[in-house]
Amino acid sequence: MLSTLLAMGNKGSKNTIEGGAKVIQVDYSNDTSVKHALTGVDVVISTVPIGAFDVQWKIAAAAKEVDVKLFVPSEFGGISEEASEGLLVWKANVQTQLQALGLPYTAFYTGAFADQIWVPYVSCYTSVFLFCRVNQRSKGS
Q: Which residues on neighbouring strands pair with residue 24, listed in sequence order?
């Protein structure tokens, strides 16, 4: 049974979360701040982007120190287990680090995102957002 839903946000952030989650502001550069936020937490679900995997490692290390029971690393996308090239290597390294820590973890693989699947079939350019070229009719058609 879930007793309290917590969300950790950057220190100084004004973000709020609907649904009754308690937002705790954390200074991710301060190990004590991260440990304090995780004290008494049973499960950590990480949703950090690839650019913040160094922060995810700090969260995992702090979670181990305060006896978190399960860590769910940020794994959006394809299967990263035993990856040897590309961005998935970063995710595979996180799992290797979690194993070395001895912190129980579960990875959920969501598969490819629609903007990646459909690129070969439509004239789209992906970056941070999905941009699609709209076919325009020429005059007289």
A: 8
